Amino acid sequence: SPNRRPLTCVFDEAGTYTINGEYRKGRDTVSASATIEVIGGSFEGDNPACLLGQTRTWTFEGMPSNVVYEVDESVEMSVLGISPNVTNQSSIVTTLSLKASDDNREHRIVARVSEGGPILAAKRLDACWIQNSADGYFWIVDQFEDSELWEVESIQRNLPDTVDLQIKVYVGGGVMFDDYTLERWITNADYDETGVYNFRLFHPNDAQTSACHTFAAYQDGTMIGEASTLKQ
What we know:
The protein is mainly β. It contains no helices and 17 strands. The chain has two domains: about 80 residues, Immunoglobulin-like, CATH 2.60.40; about 100 residues, Immunoglobulin-like, CATH 2.60.40. Helices cover about 0% and strands about 55% of the residues. It is elongated, with a radius of gyration of 27 Å.
């Protein structure tokens, strides 16, 4: 450039480009060319959610295979796999293993073009916490001739809207939800403004088991954590 400052070139798409340059001074001219590889990428899909202390896998597309991923020190991360999409070879499928230990701060997954290089893209990681059967207790809220109605309290913190929770009774003997089903799906919208969700279970008096059930979290069809609950 006339002022001897670097020129910035903006490319609309990733790919291989040839840049031609020419330097003139008086009657002298020097020409040269350079081939460069322009890298582009983005994190596609929802922000990954992590239940505190539990490892999950996160699979996404949109990133080239040679980028470097970084997270803060409160998140454990490893690359499990990088491969072309079987139906679209130009798209790369990446799978990461993620485990968060702190939900009181904001987390970012950063993709760099090289170790310590420029940032290509960043994605927020949603760390959240869920406790089922608060304090390990069920409460008896009603008694009948042949059964009791038990209430269970679940508490959540920072649960994103993209996570679905499955509550499933896995014992027999007539234990079921108060709507006579064995499985229920809830989301963040089912919790009240204090982060509490209560549900009820029928427990027959002659049942030889407690009201054991699982409380599993899913995001985009992938289970990200699970906790079994047993009446104390």
